């Protein structure tokens, strides 16, 4: 540093002589000592002085961004599931329902941030018991977790499925109300042949199908064989994973109603605007048609149950009923037709008891 500048001593600059007699320059302040390059007054010296006088504050550790996933957490496993082909194969409505269940489980007591590998049957069973007031919802949760960990095993994220040993709760409900003959007649009195509500009833009752299939039936699904009309289609549910192909004869009563009704080009059922119904839209519209007939406890799904029950009352076997409804196991059919089957067996038993007289 020039002599005149040396006289202007820079603040906090001190000199120190090492054991070899070399003079060292330092910036010393509040216990902090920083070596400065010499000679004093050189560009290097001034740069070091400026840096020492204005040290950069250490960056605070980056906080986890809100919503950032922890690898190995339950939420992380869910996101991997949503990206998989197993998820892509599910029906959009099933995806929506299952995602909602998994997200509710993740939100409960911060389950989402906990390691999924530490989840045991007792943890799932505890949450199931907390939901015992709504057994159907509890059982749906267990089912969703079984599918999630089934994915985890298949994709080598885990080696066990803690939900498989969790028992479902006994349901307090018998499910959707199955229409009685009197209720069907009451609906038919309100909605005569030729109207869309009556066509909807006939399609559901005489085919035994879900509303997702009923709204898609159209002329393109009709095939004729030796003068008999058949509905040939693939059920909407599970069509991407395990498709169920059905051929159902069109009974005379259904054909009569189709012929008398105004139908669409690609679907028999169309809205007032002439468009095909969406699944939810049809469900809401059918609800209004039932309410108009004074049947607030009846639903379109209850017609599927009623169709199975009527087949059972006429002595059809479970496998014959499954050929109409498309069920792959007899478990659900048995639940649908339990009361009807009991009635048929009771009638047959009494005929045997009275030698054919009832």
From TrEMBL:
Which is a Pfam family this sequence falls into? Answer: Phage_integrase
InterPro entries reported for this sequence: CB (IPR044068), DNA_brk_join_enz (IPR011010), Integrase-like_cat_sf (IPR013762), Integrase_catalytic (IPR002104), Integrase_recombinase_N (IPR010998), Tyrosine_recombinase_XerCD (IPR050090)
Molecular function (Gene Ontology), one example: DNA binding
Q: Does the keyword DNA-binding apply?
A: yes
Domain Tyr recombinase residues, every copy? 174-349
| GO BP | DNA integration; DNA recombination
Q: Which UniProt keywords apply?
A: DNA integration, DNA recombination, DNA-binding
Record keyword Translocase present: no
SUPFAM superfamilies recorded for this chain?
DNA breaking-rejoining enzymes (SSF56349)
Q: Which residues form the Core-binding (CB) domain?
A: 73-153
Q: What is this protein called?
A: Tyrosine-type recombinase/integrase
């Amino acid at each position: 540093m020039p002599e005149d500048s040396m006289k202007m001593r820079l603040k906090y600059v001190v000199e120190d002589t090492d054991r070899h007699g070399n003079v060292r320059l330092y910036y010393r302040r509040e216990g902090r000592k920083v070596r400065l390059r010499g000679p004093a007054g050189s560009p290097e010296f001034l740069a070091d002085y400026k840096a020492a006088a204005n040290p950069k504050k250490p960056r605070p550790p980056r906080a986890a961004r809100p919503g950032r996933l922890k690898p190995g957490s339950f939420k992380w496993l869910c996101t991997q599931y949503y990206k998989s082909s197993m998820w892509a194969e599910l029906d959009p409505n099933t995806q929506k329902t299952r995602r909602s269940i998994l997200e509710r489980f993740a939100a409960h007591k911060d389950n989402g941030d906990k390691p999924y590998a530490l989840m045991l049957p007792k943890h799932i069973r505890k949450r199931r018991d907390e939901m015992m007031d709504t057994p159907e919802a509890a059982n749906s949760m267990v089912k969703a977790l079984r599918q999630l960990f089934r994915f985890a095993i298949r994709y080598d994220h885990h080696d066990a499925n803690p939900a498989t040993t969790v028992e479902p709760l006994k349901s307090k409900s018998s499910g959707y109300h199955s229409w009685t003959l009197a209720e069907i007649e009451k609906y038919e009195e309100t909605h005569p042949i030729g109207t869309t509500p009556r066509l909807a009833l006939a399609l559901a009752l005489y085919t035994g199908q879900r509303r997702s299939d009923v709204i898609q039936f159209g002329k393109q699904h009709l095939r004729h064989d030796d003068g008999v009309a058949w509905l040939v289609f693939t059920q909407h549910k599970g069509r991407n994973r395990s498709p169920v192909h059905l051929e159902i004869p069109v009974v005379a009563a259904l054909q009569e109603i189709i012929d008398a009704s105004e139908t669409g080009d690609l679907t028999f059922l169309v809205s007032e605007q002439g468009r095909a119904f969406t699944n939810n839209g049809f469900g809401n519209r059918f609800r209004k048609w039932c309410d108009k007939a004074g049947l607030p406890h009846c639903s379109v799904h209850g017609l599927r149950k009623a169709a199975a029950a009527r087949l059972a009352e006429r002595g059809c076997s479970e496998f014959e009923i499954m050929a109409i409804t498309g069920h792959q196991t007899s478990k659900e059919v048995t639940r649908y037709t339990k009361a009807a089957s009991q009635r048929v067996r009771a009638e047959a038993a009494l005929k045997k008891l009275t030698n054919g007289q009832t």
